[in-house]
Amino acid sequence: MSILAIIGFGLMIVLVLLLLKNAYTPNVIFVMLPTIAALLCGTTFIQLGQFVTDGLKAILSTATLMIFAIMFFSIMKEAGVFKVIVNFILGFLNNSVRSVLIITIMIAAICSFDGNAYATILVTVPAMLPIYDLMKIDRRALFLCIAIGVGATGVTPWGGSLLRAVAVTHADPIVLYRSLIPIQGVIVVLGLITAHFLAKREVKKGAGATDEEFDSFKENGEEKHAEVQNKIIKRKGLLVYNFLLVIITIALLIIGKIPGHYLFMLAVAIALPLNYPDAKEAQKKIKEYSVTAMPVMVTFLSIGAFLGIMQGTKMFNEMVQVIVSLFPVSFGPHIYLVVAAFSVPLVIAMGSDAFYFALLPLIAGIGDQFGVTAHEVTYALLITEQIGLLLSPAIPATYLGLGMLNIDIGDHLRYSFLWVWGISVTVLVAAVVAGFIPL
User: Fold this and answer.
1) Neighbour tally for 381: CB within 10 Å
2) 3-class DSSP string for 265-290
3) DSSP states of 352-385
4) Helix (H) or strand (E) holding 341
5) Do 402 and 139 meet the contact criterion of CB atoms below 8 Å apart?
6) 228, 83 in Cβ contact below 8 A?
7) At what angle do helices 236-255 and 260-275 cross, to 10 degrees?
8) Is 206 helix (H, G, I), strand (E, B) or coil?
């Protein structure tokens, strides 16, 4: 084993441990660790500067897409676009445990489209928890349904998982997202099937409400819904324009004729003056959105530096060669599928940062040795990992949900783990059968 490989593996072990322990802010870790490792390998600061520059160039368009997409969906959320959709879906609620679970998944899936698990939890839990308590449905079922909804639509070109993945593999985020859309539909269908069986189990445990209790709840809910609608009606014309802007932006994104980073720059350039015509108010909003975007941007750029150094020094190449030598040649092309099948327990143990920044580049490097493209590796790990996101103790959003629902992580895992892992593996099989992932 070469000195580059030894230092590289040592670096990755320390990196994973620091990320798991939240020892310090990730952007410092992603800059300092590879710099120290590269200096130990005999790299000069002049060479390091070039490696970092190359790494930043590789992620520049994706970073631009990310920051403008965050701004765009923040504007749309404040405009009431997602709130109206959620209230509309709640109108279909009926006195059925199955109905409650299905609507929970649909609300979570719609809210998660902005790529923000925190926002999804903050919208879905307050909207659905009262009916869960009324119907005596286990609160863990609510969190499980949210996890499924996030797993279905949380992988977007501006969402955390896909951004982490493409930062590492340099896969095209828009091309990748377009190929993910059919599988996202499969996850929704599997979620609805899960809701059916979960509802039967909850009913056996005594879940349900009388028609009188439910009707009373629904009437109160409709009154609140009317209050929200009255506030929005005053800006009805503006709301229609915002809906059209969202639909057109997403359609153009899927069609792929306009580069994603430029598309969202245009979308923000239209949405900002549309909703905030006063220049001072618009500037104030940009400053507000930067509070959300800046920490993500800093970490993202630090990852570019990390990858630039690791690739420039050839540490990744040496590490991959060592791992490849441990497996028979016939098994090599399928290593990434095995890892994908275990994505849920892996992300529970590692968290998304370590999963994407430490594990994915190695798996992508191994795949490259056997003719498996970065797109295929990224695709397989994204569709299987995302659904396990809100089960991981290493994900801060998990604790937001646990706190709002007053349940502990052990109960959550015992209740949800097998359901979520089962969906993850089934989705992987479906992607292979449908030809999205070649064998």
Assistant:
1) 27
2) HHHHHHHHHHHCCCHHHHHHHHHHHH
3) HHHIIIIIHHHHHHHHHHTT--HHHHHHHHHHHH
4) helix 335-341
5) no
6) yes
7) 180
8) coil
Whether the model clears a pTM of 0.85, i.e. scores above it, the answer is no
pLDDT in the model for residue 290: 81
Least confident residue range of 20-24, 301-305, 308-312: 20-24
Token representation of residue 41 = 């390998």
3 Cβ contact list (under 8 Å, min separation 6): 41
Token pair for 381:
């790990």
Q: How far apart are CA 238 and CA 254, in angstroms?
A: 24
CB 383 within 8 A of CB 180: yes
> Hey, what are 432's tokens?
């292979």
Tokens in use for 385? 């990992």
Here the tokens at position 220 are: 């109160």
Per-residue pLDDT at 48: 93
Cα Rg of the chain, angstroms = 23
> Concatenated DSSP letters for 209-258?
--HHHHHHHHHHHHHHHHHHHHHHHTTHHHHHHHHHHHHHHHHHHHHTSS
Q: At a CB cut-off of 8 Å and minimum separation 6, what does 134 contact?
A: 209, 213, 214, 217
Distance CA 248, CA 97 (A): 36
More confident residue, 260 or 278: 278
Q: How far apart are CA 195 and CA 192, in angstroms?
A: 5
* 9 burial level (CB within 10 Å; 0-12, 13-18, 19+): middle
170 exposed, middle or buried (CB, 10 Å; 0-12, 13-18, 19+)? middle
**Are residues 378 and 176 in contact, defined by beta-carbon separation less than 8 angstroms?**
yes
Give the model's confidence band at 236: pLDDT under 50 very low, under 70 low, under 90 confident, else very high.
low
